[in-house]
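Section 5.1 Outputs to date
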Amino acid sequence: MDCSRPVRGFRLPWQWVGYVLLAAVAGQAVGPANSCGAEDERLPQKWALLIGIDKYVNYPDLPICGIDERDLGAQLVKAGYAANRVFVMRDGARKKSLLPTKENIERQLELLLDPTKGLVGVGDLVIVSYSGYGISLRGKSYLCPPGADENDPPGTMIPLDRVYRQIDRSRAALKLLVVDVCRDDPAHPTIAKTMSHGFFNSLHKVPRGLFLLSSCGEGQKALNDPALGHSVFMHFLLDGLAGKAAHADGDITLTNLYLYTTTQTRKYAAKKFKAFQLPALEGSMEGRFEVCRLDPDALPARPTPPADQKKPTQTPGEVVMNSIGMKLVLVPAGEFLMGSPETEKSMNNEHEQIEQQHRVQITRPFYLGVYEVTQAQFQLLMGKNPSRFSGIGPLKDRLKGLNTSLFPVEHVSLDETLEFCRRLSEKEGKLYRLPTEAEWEYACRAGTSSPYSFGAACNGRQANCNGEKPYGTKTKGPYLERTTKVGSYRPNAFGLFDMHGNVWERCSDLYDGKYYDESPLADPEGPASGGYYVSRGGSWFTSPLSCRSASRYGNVPSFRADDLGFRVCLAVADEPEAEAEPPATAATPEKPAAPEKPEPPATAAATEKPEPPATEKPAPEKPAAPEKPATPATVAP
């Protein structure tokens, strides 16, 4: 059988083999499992349907799919999921209804996900996991039960878009698609297994409300290791669920699970296989989502290094440079008072609520961009420069022939900043992201408690802002009325430039004016819900009042302005080396692969949340909004 005929538009094999984990994560803080009861008073519940198929009629058998699903189910139960709500469908199941036939799989999906009578209720967390073969025929992708026959796809296979629709229509509020796949031909297992360009692009067209966690990026290989007994990605996903991705209080959030799994997968692949594999997470993260909660006293202890072991080479203040010329400085872990004291002048006494002072611990060091992302760096990775203050931008008349390549990029949406971080992560093989709001203020203050990292007064001489409205002094200063070259003013004690003024800088947190009332002590990640995202630092347009270390604002994700940009954060892995290197004689097979995935069905897109109507920026000194009337804006109330 010739299985290497090109799919239309691509010279790629037809079939794909893979591990596809479709997970719908609903509820911001999922409580303990509860017996099925009345919908109006029931606590959120956790469900899992895990499908692993090892034996096939028309394709070679798969060695690890059933094991992956079995062990994932066992780990979910250990992590607090009720055993009677975790269903594993695999070859040899004792109950005939759990044998992974086409009819049984479709029936179990319906029983779990039906929006009117399914087991999954409002606010529940549900994981639907599939591990096995799939096939892409005539532009349509299918999951393959044991009797799958490409000569009769409708009668022997399960359309992937139908599974999308079922998950989309379920009462789960948010969906996560985790894909551990790459391109392969099941009939020719020796063919190089590499994530194709087309498949990669189809995966990353994520509709709002759906999260995507993929095991590798374009051109990468999803690796298996017999010494681990799982795919490398799955091994560390299970480790993370076992507690290695937990916060000190036992919470395992989606963000931390992703960071742990990605960091350890990358390290292990490089050490064992001399290969590059970097999982990625995409989607609209609405705050802190608890995947599970463990007993903090039962968390695995981090090994204590021998007394003679060399200390990490990173030292606070260390500056590194990546391949696009971006400098980042290592910010040490520490503790600080976040917000403003009552004695500090703020907008409408914001320290009483919006800027309420509270203690925060940053438990892990991190690298932060020495400068805001420049127009040249954005152009290099994204192939475009949306900045209004550029040589070809609509505000070029204010620049008088200046070279703006080292000006900060601005007029970018949240999606564009996240895409920049994703591309930079792919290019560098490291985890680039936006800083959390707490990380940003900690880095901005750099050990200070004054309104600014440089003192108590600002009039436009210390930072690029509207010096005609000075703060802490009566002396007016310059007002450039535009952005300027990054690094034009003195850095703070951490070596960071332009933390005050020039452009507002996006953070990863959702905005909530009351969040400080309930913010956790260690590594806060923002509120669990909302429609606005935090921006910090003020800008060239705003008064110095808005450039204080404690000032905070919010904008809808799609908002763009000529005074809104960002700087990137680089995660530092603080876990020990992944595992002792297995024997050199171990084989190095790779994860089976996946087909070209079709566009999500129209029903998925229908769940998109409408954005609030646009309003104009209010006048200066109003809380919760940048102050520029010239640019339409939608800001947090």
